[in-house]
């Protein structure tokens, strides 16, 4: 199998983290066609990265579907809890990243892609702060003790969320001087914990290089 990825994609990054962490025999490649081109859309109907090229030549899209599939066929070094409630909580983290946190930072992405795009930065920062506060409360209830955040093993929820959280940490200072993580200590501890994972570190470095190359290509100077 081959994993079709772009280093600056947070959705590709989560699957790449899983592949590296589990040391799976999957080649990681760039797409053969440019995104949104007729050739790309003809080959991949959903028109998005990432994609998993299966051994029979078919393609599996959508990062969370790919991650669950890889766990099913490669159960060793499991990244999915056995206990049903822990597994459900893992999927809450996956859903939070996609349906709560990503929408909260999308205006910032759009502004980087389209310099003419305008939005209320004060209002959006407040929304983002509230969104982070939701996950802070979730961590406090489910993964904290008297000493703060605690978790034994990384799972698919952590892998799915960390690239989006990385973009929050990287992009928001380009628009605001305030620290968006100032009032979410459990999230800060979670970030320190997950950054200790070798696969996360490798993927973070790739994302950082690719994203800053993108910024340089557009000569982005926000603030």
UniProtKB/TrEMBL annotation:
Domain GST C-terminal: 83-211
Every GST N-terminal domain range: 1-78
SUPFAM superfamilies according to UniProt: GST C-terminal domain-like, Thioredoxin-like
GO-annotated cellular components: cytoplasm
Name of this chain's protein: Glutathione S-transferase
Pfam family membership, one: GST_N_3
């Amino acid at each position: 199998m081959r994993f079709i990825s772009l280093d600056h994609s947070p959705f590709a990054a989560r699957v790449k983290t899983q592949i590296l962490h589990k040391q799976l025999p999957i080649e990681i490649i760039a797409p053969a066609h440019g995104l949104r081109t007729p050739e790309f859309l003809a080959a991949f109907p959903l028109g998005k990265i990432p994609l998993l090229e299966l051994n029979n030549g078919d393609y599996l899209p959508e990062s969370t579907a790919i991650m669950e599939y890889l766990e099913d066929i490669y159960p060793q070094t499991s990244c999915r809890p056995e206990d049903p409630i822990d597994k459900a909580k893992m999927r809450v983290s996956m859903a939070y990243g996609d349906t709560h946190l990503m929408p909260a930072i999308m205006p910032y992405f759009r502004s980087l892609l389209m310099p003419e795009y305008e939005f209320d930065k004060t209002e959006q920062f407040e929304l983002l702060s509230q969104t982070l506060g939701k996950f802070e409360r979730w961590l406090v209830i489910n993964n904290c003790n008297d000493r703060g955040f605690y978790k034994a093993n990384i799972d698919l929820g952590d892998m799915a969320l960390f690239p989006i959280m990385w973009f929050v940490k990287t992009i928001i200072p380009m628009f605001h001087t305030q620290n968006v993580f100032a009032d979410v200590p459990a999230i800060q501890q979670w970030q320190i914990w997950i950054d200790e994972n070798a696969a996360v570190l490798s993927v973070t470095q790739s994302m950082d290089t690719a994203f800053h190359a993108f910024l340089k290509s557009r000569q982005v100077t926000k603030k």
